[in-house]
Amino acid sequence: MFVCSCFGVTEEQVRSHAEAGACTPRQIASACKAGTDCGGCVRRIQALLGRGACPRRELIDQGAPALAELPEAA
């Protein structure tokens, strides 16, 4: 299902970016532009990210890169 109609970003893509370390809507926006046009999807992105801790926060705190490289979509 699409989260961002402006840029055609799906829930799966948002989840992939989150698993790669994007913990905030701003980081998701940096990764795929979702939320940067009309802003109508920002609340949905927040809901997908949840209110819990970032799964990679501990690694980030130890100096690991915040965003891992994702494979190009086919």
UniProtKB/TrEMBL annotation:
**Gene3D superfamilies given for it?**
BFD-like [2Fe-2S]-binding domain
Keywords on record: 2Fe-2S, Electron transport, Iron, Iron-sulfur, Metal-binding, Transport
- Name residues in a coiled coil: none
Q: Which domain of life is it from?
A: Bacteria
Q: Where are the transmembrane segments?
A: none
Every copy of the BFD-like [2Fe-2S]-binding domain together lies at 3-50
| Statement: the UniProt record of this protein carries the keyword Protein biosynthesis | no
State the InterPro entries in the record: BFD-associated_ferredoxin, BFD-like_2Fe2S-bd_dom, BFD-like_2Fe2S-bd_dom_sf
Molecular function GO labels:
2 iron, 2 sulfur cluster binding; metal ion binding
Is-annotated flag, keyword Cell cycle?
A: no
A Pfam family recorded for this sequence: Fer2_BFD
Q: Which PANTHER family match?
A: BACTERIOFERRITIN-ASSOCIATED FERREDOXIN
Q: Which family does it belong to?
A: Belongs to the Bfd family.
Q: Write down what this protein is called.
A: Bacterioferritin-associated ferredoxin
**Native source organism of the sequence:** Streptomyces fumanus
